[in-house]
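Human:
Care to share another protein and its fold?

Assistant:
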Amino acid sequence: MKHKFLSIRNKRFANKKRAISSTGKILIIIENLPVPFDRRVWQEATSLKNEDYEVSVICPKGKGHEKKFEIIDDIYIYRHSLPVEARLAPAYFFEYLLALFWEFILSFKVLATRGFDVIHACNPPDLIVLIGLFYKIFFRKKFVFDHHDLFPEMWLSKGGKKNFIYKLLLLLENLTFRTSDISLATNNSYKEIALSRGRKMEKDVFIVRSSPNIESFKRFIPEKPNSTLKKGKKYMVGYVGVMAVQDGVDYLLRAADYIVNKKRRNDILFVLIGKGPEWKNLLNYAQELQLNNNVEFVGWKYGKELVDLLYACDIGVCPEQPDNEYNNNSTMNKILE
């Protein structure tokens, strides 16, 4: 039975999308990752293209995705520069304002060249609603909210307090829901938040789940695991994904410290695939815990290199900690992969 995790083709959703878009031109805006690196957004973009929509994307630049403009699979991609990924509140403020500026500039460029009927906004942050609101008021464009992250809860998971900033984030989230013609949720928990906190009508909220592209993995699967990747260890534990505060990789390192140094298990290799704002801190922390012989940070891997590593793992881990509302309600891509 063919699965349909990313249900862009869901008939009710497709009919609603066509109802709000007369000529089928979609502008997707995402701030936190480049395209096509962001797999969910890229699957959405290609799914829409396969349904005969014309798709443009505005996103930041990233490693391997530095071109200001390119066309991939007939999707028009406009990229802008961003400073180093923020870790502190003032830096976040600067990063988001700069991104908002470039998103406005590039949206005018898309409007003047390709045109668009619908803005499809992918959070975080929820500031993209200001662009959607502008075009809704002055150009009568439709606005779709693709709810990737609970931004207020994400703020708390990064050490933020329930202060003025938290209340501002709730206000922006509420404005985003009120402005959106339809809202996309990644799971049932996010749908419930759209219905309760966002006060959306159920007919305007659609669950669009993410999943890995199985076909893109199949051609790389080896006949048997490559045991040399274990570096002489009997077992390999794998983590793949972004390494930010809310991802709890420091908890994984503490677990490795207990297993290796307290329980004297030197037969396990922990392979950490990916990077993020906490990457350097985690490298230093692993050295501090004297885990150099048992923990390997390999950075981002793609294609055959990634599949070989995942296929060689005996266990995959997803250490989102501590226990909080953000982690408890979110479905992480690394789980599905």
